[in-house]
Amino acid sequence: MLFLDQSIELNDTELDIYNYITAHLDTVIYMRIRDLAEATHVSTTTILRFCRRFKCNGFSEFRVKLQLYAEEQKRTRIDMSDETTYIDFLQRTASPEFKGQVARSASVLRDSELVLFAGIGSSGIIAEYGALYFSSLFTLALHIEDPLNHPFYHLSSKLSDKICLVAISVDGENEDIIRYIHELKSQKCKIISITNSAKSTIARLSDANIAYYINKEMYQDANITSQLPALYTIECVAREIRTQLDKEN
């Protein structure tokens, strides 16, 4: 709540002041206490009580903390104008290295009778799309929404080596996915991963990995790195498998 790490309960008057401040942040940081009182139709005493609710001794301290908060918010704003990240990635998809990674992944996947897609957070949404796309072009594919609650302890040996997991992860270090990979590897299932780096744990545990290498982006505590490369890569692999199978028939 503003510069506080936790939420606090506000009465109706305090909530009106809070809403005014958040809506006019760039203006309030330059106001005098009397200006803010007039703008919110309360007394200066009420403004002082409001400041103390935010652990400030007075309006001057509140305004300083508010200004620092406003500056921090500006630093974390997202620049949507830089398209070079996507252009660079798409150019790399024409390289022999990327095409080789796609071909190796397709070779591992093409003998599978069941493909599982797993990811956490936004990667989970991409995994769900991947399952749909693979089912349309290749073979039955399922999205594992909650890996920890879908154990594979009792797989038949006749089936386990026909299953391939496609793990989607930006940083390649998600502990839930790593545990799931270890569980499936112990059952002799194949592992394909699509990550941002080939040096990540998930990438190194995989039978084949496709790394797309784009700049990692964070907004506050959220990882907002683009999923466009993962989406494109899934389609590339599925189309490569379909092409290989069509050539044989």
From TrEMBL:
UniProt entry tagged with the keyword Phosphoprotein: no
Keywords linked to the UniProt accession: DNA-binding, Transcription, Transcription regulation
Protein known as: SIS domain-containing protein
Species per Swiss-Prot/TrEMBL record: Listeria fleischmannii 1991
Domain SIS: from-to ranges: 105-247
Keyword Nuclease: no
SUPFAM superfamilies from the UniProt entry: Homeodomain-like (SSF46689), SIS domain (SSF53697)
Pfam families: HTH_6, SIS
Example of a GO MF term: DNA binding
GO biological process, one term: carbohydrate derivative metabolic process
HTH rpiR-type domain location: 1-73
